Amino acid sequence: MNLKKKIVWVLTDGSQGMLSQVYGLANHFSNNIVNIKTKLLFPWSVIQPGFLPTYKWIFSNPLDLKNKPDIAISCGRKSVYLSIFLKKILGNKVITIHIQNPKIKFTNFDYVVAPNHDGISGYNVISSIGALHQFSHNQIDLASEVFPSIKNEIIISIMLGGKNRHYKFDYQTAINLIEKIKFLKNKYPNYIFLVIQSRRTNNKIFKMFIDRLKNSALIWNGKDPNPYLFALKYSKAFILTSDSTSMISECAFTQKPIYIFDLPYKRRSKRMEKFHNEFNNLKITQKLLDNLKLSECNYKTLDEAKRISVILKERIVESKNESR
Question: Would you state the pLDDT for residue 78?
């Protein structure tokens, strides 16, 4: 079965983390990808899927059902509604794949792809190590040289996340990380420390890094082109805050050392603890202490989107053959 010409709809709420996951998988299926940002009317917009029925009119964004999808890949709560609706009207003419725990019956989808730390299982569930992402080796190799003057230096990239429902990233936490970076710069004066913020990094917190590290680090100002891919390509190692499974999974694609700076918990999360234990046991990550070892890592390149796409293609072909 040739899937390259199939129409694939990717369904998300538009957030970058979800887009990276659905595109990461979709790119291995087809070149014909349609991005659908799911917008729901109230009360569907606030109620967990499974309690209310689905109709076309609950979506405030237009749906071009003349060009029906052959495959729908969804991620996130809001996109669950659209995936269920497409299955309702198209039946076996569409293959539905949901990424992450949908928190409703898995039988609502043909396949569910969820990370090991979600702790779910089922006959149609395929488990991943960490989060899927859209990056390829070719994409990283072609990364624009945002900081050409340092590309041949020993670069340590520090990628900052932000607070979420599990973690705090407050004043004292920022001070602790800033002091750690200063300590490492004094210990390794020839290293270039590149600090990159994310969309979730609080502006006031990030200004602390700008003000206090101006003599110790190179800091992306948030206005010039994003150096994220540059960092993936040229960094010798990464220092990442513990809140982002996506950033950690993406950096694990490079097979370079990853050091985790633990943010304090708002409330203990067994799910996040399971994620970090898994990556630590696989020797992908290690806690940030007082040393940086830049030797080759023992872990394999983490390319879960590619691995899982192979499994899904095999299952789809088997299912089609059985239905004949």
Answer: 93
Q: Contact, 255 vs 300, CB < 8 A? A: yes
Total of domains in the chain: 2
User: Considering the domain boundaries, does residue 296 fall inside one?
Assistant: no
Q: Which of 115, 88, 118, 117 is nearest to 103 (CA)?
A: 118
pLDDT-based confidence at 146, cuts 50/70/90?
A: confident
| C-alpha 134: how far from chain center | 8
Burial class from Cβ neighbours inside 10 Å (0-12, 13-18, 19+) for residue 115 reads buried
Question: CB of 285 within 8 A of CB of 278?
Answer: no
Whole-number Å distance between alpha carbons of 21 and 320:
25
CATH at 144: 3.40.50.2000
Is 297 within the bounds of a domain? no
Single-letter amino acid, residue 257: P
List strand residue ranges (DSSP E) for the chain, in order.
7-12, 32-37, 71-75, 95-99, 111-115, 125-128, 154-159, 191-196, 218-219, 235-241, 258-261, 285-287
Full-model pTM: 0.92
Of 44, 31, 39, nearest to 11 by C-alpha is: 39
Q: Which residues contact 140 (CB under 8 A, 6 or more apart)?
A: 229, 232, 233, 253, 254
Question: Rounded CA gap, 278 and 116, in Å?
Answer: 9
**pLDDT level of residue 173 (50, 70, 90 thresholds):** very high
**Average pLDDT for the chain:** 94
pLDDT given at position 4: 81
Residue 323: per-residue pLDDT = 65
Q: Are residues 270 and 245 in the same domain?
A: yes
Q: What is the pLDDT of residues 212-253, one digit of tens each?
A: 999 999 999 888 889 999 999 999 999 999 999 999 999 999
Q: Which domain holds residue 239?
A: 137-287
Q: Supply the DSSP symbol for 157.
A: E
Domain co-membership, 65 together with 155 = no
